[in-house]
Write a structure and sequence with these properties.
Layout lengths: L6 H15 L2 H13 L1 H7 L3 E3 H7 L7 H13 L3 E4 L4 E4 L1 H4 L14 H7 L2 H8 L1 H6 L6 H6 L6 H6 L1 H16 L2 H7 L1 H4 L4 E5 L8 H8 L4 E6 L14 E5 L11 E5 L7 H14 L8 E7 L7 H16 L7 H10 L5 E7 L2 E6 L1
Parallel strand pairs: 4-5, 4-7, 5-6, 7-8
Antiparallel strand pairs: 1-3, 2-3, 8-10, 9-10
Helix pairs in contact: 2-5, 7-12
């Protein structure tokens, strides 16, 4: 029989429903703060600023001070900024640090393009049409169904070049963040590797292979990239062999094949095809052959990380043909591609690192 909630539960859950219904205002408040330049302004104030400081520093009308105070209160509560109640000063934390412009620290990649893309009208309109999309017997994802183009693809570039650039900048910021941290944390993985094929995703200027050969000059590195990107890659170095090709059809032979945030853009069928080509490209497990995969692995425990992963999954479902996977779903793909074993070596922020052999 259905559970009948108590009066107290109904009152509490109405408040929860309000929160869920208005979650989008968190995103819009953050978008507003970045468009106003608030994270950068606080950083230039030395990392902490009051609301009057921000009004003056951003040349905003004095009449907007009480409204900005309300905006900042929400953003501090949602974890974007710190707040010192004794001084009424807001500060930069690790999250808002990612949205500051002009930081020269090598670890810093500005994520404003990701925020602008994820909160763009094109994204939001596709998400608003999810119910209609579910009712249609179609294979195209909601973004393509609505706009008639595919995100990150040439059709998007021809339709809206500026949006295409912003979306690709967002993809690069997300995918290329933390490369140096990863190479330090997983240094032991690369020590015994003699040759490597790195499979690029849609970003032709992926800095990862260059960072790997700089850190491990003994590795003979081949990069498999989209033919349209070969020759346009700035900073290509002589020690890296860039090869044009399609990973669905061929992966250049090497001891190890490496993917970083590529496979979550593909459906299961294509992932199996790609990994089957990898299996042909590497020697046996006994001879050191393996595939290293850095990608999102849906967190099994409840909490903010799992929520981030599941939001990303619905984002992928709405905007692309890809998906996020939990460990069991990854294992199924590895086994279907003909591999016998895998290890989830470590979690790395929102990602996991698999060794597959």
């Amino acid at each position: 029989s259905p559970v009948v909630p108590t009066d107290a539960e109904l009152l509490q859950k109405q408040a929860d429903l309000l929160r869920h219904s208005l979650y989008y205002l968190n995103s819009m408040a953050l978008k507003c703060a970045v468009e106003l330049g608030i994270p950068t302004a606080i950083h230039r104030f030395g990392g902490a600023a009051s609301v009057p400081d921000l009004i003056t520093g951003l040349s905003l009308p004095q009449a907007k001070l009480p409204f900005l105070r309300r905006l900042m209160r929400l953003l501090a509560t949602s974890g974007v900024f710190t707040f010192d109640s004794s001084t009424e000063v807001y500060g930069i934390n690790a999250l808002s640090y990612l949205l500051v412009e002009g930081i020269t620290d090598d670890r810093h990649i500005n994520h404003t393009s990701f925020l602008h893309t994820a909160t763009s009208s094109r994204y939001i309109e596709a998400a608003m049409g999810l119910a209609d999309w579910f009712k249609k017997d179609i294979l195209t994802h909601p973004f393509e169904d609505l706009h008639g183009v595919k995100l990150f693809q040439e059709s998007m570039a021809n339709h809206d070049a500026d949006y295409h650039k912003m979306a690709n900048d967002a993809l690069a910021a997300h995918d290329n963040f933390g490369v140096d941290i990863g190479l330090r944390e997983f240094r032991h993985i690369f020590e015994g590797i003699k040759s490597m094929t790195y499979c690029c995703g849609s970003d032709g200027d992926d800095p990862t292979p260059r960072a790997i050969v700089k850190a491990f000059p003994h590795i003979k590195c081949t990069v498999l990239a989209n033919p349209k990107l070969i020759g346009t890659i700035p900073g290509a170095v002589a020690v890296i062999n860039y090869v044009a090709g399609d990973m669905l059809k061929f992966v250049p032979p090497a001891q190890v094949v490496v993917f970083k945030l590529v496979l979550h853009h593909w459906n299961d069928e294509y992932c199996v095809k790609i990994l089957s080509q990898c299996k042909k490209a590497i020697p046996s497990r006994e001879d050191g052959g393996k595939v290293l995969i850095g990608d999102i692995v849906i967190e099994s425990s409840p909490g903010p990380m799992r929520e981030s992963h599941l939001l990303m999954d619905i984002g992928m479902m709405t905007m692309t043909e890809g998906r996020e996977r939990d460990e069991n779903e990854w294992r199924d793909i590895f086994m279907k591609a003909g591999f016998r074993d895998y290890k989830l070596l470590s979690k790395f922020g929102a990602r996991g690192v698999f060794e597959v052999a």
